[in-house]
Each structure stands twice: as structure tokens, then as C-alpha cells.
Amino acid sequence: MGDIRRRGAVALGIIALTAPLTVALGAAPAQAASCTTQTGPYQKQVEKFLGRPVDGKQSSADCKAIQAFQNKHRITPAAGYAGPATWGVMDLMNKQKAVGNKPNKDGKCPVNKGRIACVNLTLQLSWIQDGNRLVYGPVPVRTGRKGFVTRTGLKKIYWRDINHVSSLYDTPMPYSQFFDGGQAFHSVGVSVWNPPGSHGCVNMTKTDAKKYWSLLKNGDDVFVYGRKPGT
């Protein structure tokens, strides 16, 4: 995330200096693309997701609807093709929605730590719980891409900076709460479903990052588990 400018302890300073420096950057804006007439391999699934007539055949209206979704989440190329990248995002959204208000149903995030922020990399979801009680979430997040994965395990928030800016990438990272070297919760200005992901941080919408900021403090536990698809 760039070198951390304030360090509460020598040990933390060492961690921050030796850990890989990471930041969540959005993909470049989608280039203008013509609407394709090709039927994609996930045509029916994409049509159903978008509420289009499900006939498995590309139409001009299908393409425009797919292209709008691709532009919103910066999926490139935004040509309206129902391919694996587009369906992958939609499929993840469906799986996230199916979780409902029981994100820790499998019991993988510890319930004996008191207040803890959980991150499920597999489903790209995060939430805050206190014992068995859900405090906030679950919310969709955007974690590290291949080669810059968000590291798993039990961690603690050790430094917070509400207006942090990465000195490595000169990128704003509002509401940063660092929990593992250069990896932190923070808001991001692109869709949290924007592939392929961050450079290791746990990206959130501004609304969710502000809520995490208000609910968490230094010393609170963070537990990261699972594996992000494609990493």
C-alpha cells in the first residue's frame, strides 16, 4: 500500500516495510466497443440474470443490456458478449445473494474472539460479527488478484488512516484500516465486482468502508479465509 507514514511500534514498522506493498487499483476504463452479434457460451444464463427473454440467441437488445452491465463493472472488452468473464461476475453475485444474513453458517470465522471482521475470499464477502451475533453485513468486497492475493489467517487491525494515500501508486485509499503489512480495508472508486481484483487490499464501497471505520478499532481481530476464484 506504499510505505506507511506513521508507525505505532518498531515491530509494526518492520512488518510494514517488509510486507509486499499493495494497493487496489481499478481496471482502465472500458474502451468503446461495437455490439457483437455473436451468441456467447453463457447466453442463456446471462439473459436470465438480466431479466431478458431466455432464448439463448444474441439480439441487439441483449447485447445492449450485456454491454451496459460490462461498462458498469468495467469488464473488458465491453462488446456485449456473454462470455466467461461476464458470467463469472454474475454467478458470483448470485452466490453472494444466496448467503442472505447468515454469512458464517459454516462456522469458519471464529466466534470466540468477540468483535471480529471476517473475509470470505471464495465468495468475496465480508462482515463484522460479535460471537454468534451478526453486527454488520455481509457486504461484497474486492480482494487481491492473482499474484497479489489477500493473505489468509487471523490478524489484527494495527493502524488506521481515514485519508490514506498510497505513496507507491499515489492512489487515494479512504477509510484505510491496515491488518496485515500493506493490506487493509478501504473504499474504492470502482465497482467491487470489477475484475480481476485489487493488489491485496479488501476493497469496499464508500458506505461500507465508513461503517467498518465506525465499528472497528485498533486491536480488533480480522480473519481471512478461503480462496478467490482464479487465484
From TrEMBL:
<feature type="active site" description="Proton donor/acceptor">
    <location>
        <position position="186"/>
    </location>
</feature>
<keyword id="KW-0961">Cell wall biogenesis/degradation</keyword>
<dbReference type="GO" id="GO:0008360">
    <property type="term" value="P:regulation of cell shape"/>
</dbReference>
<feature type="signal peptide">
    <location>
        <begin position="1"/>
        <end position="32"/>
    </location>
</feature>
<comment type="pathway">
    <text>Cell wall biogenesis; peptidoglycan biosynthesis.</text>
</comment>
<dbReference type="GO" id="GO:0016740">
    <property type="term" value="F:transferase activity"/>
</dbReference>
<feature type="active site" description="Nucleophile">
    <location>
        <position position="201"/>
    </location>
</feature>
<dbReference type="Pfam" id="PF03734">
    <property type="entry name" value="YkuD"/>
</dbReference>
<dbReference type="InterPro" id="IPR050979">
    <property type="entry name" value="LD-transpeptidase"/>
</dbReference>
<feature type="domain" description="L,D-TPase catalytic">
    <location>
        <begin position="114"/>
        <end position="225"/>
    </location>
</feature>
<keyword id="KW-0133">Cell shape</keyword>
<keyword id="KW-0808">Transferase</keyword>
<protein>
    <recommendedName>
        <fullName>L,D-TPase catalytic domain-containing protein</fullName>
    </recommendedName>
</protein>
<dbReference type="GO" id="GO:0071555">
    <property type="term" value="P:cell wall organization"/>
</dbReference>
<keyword id="KW-0573">Peptidoglycan synthesis</keyword>
<dbReference type="InterPro" id="IPR036365">
    <property type="entry name" value="PGBD-like_sf"/>
</dbReference>
<dbReference type="GO" id="GO:0071972">
    <property type="term" value="F:peptidoglycan L,D-transpeptidase activity"/>
</dbReference>
<dbReference type="GO" id="GO:0005576">
    <property type="term" value="C:extracellular region"/>
</dbReference>
<dbReference type="GO" id="GO:0018104">
    <property type="term" value="P:peptidoglycan-protein cross-linking"/>
</dbReference>
<dbReference type="InterPro" id="IPR038063">
    <property type="entry name" value="Transpep_catalytic_dom"/>
</dbReference>
<dbReference type="InterPro" id="IPR005490">
    <property type="entry name" value="LD_TPept_cat_dom"/>
</dbReference>
<keyword id="KW-0732">Signal</keyword>
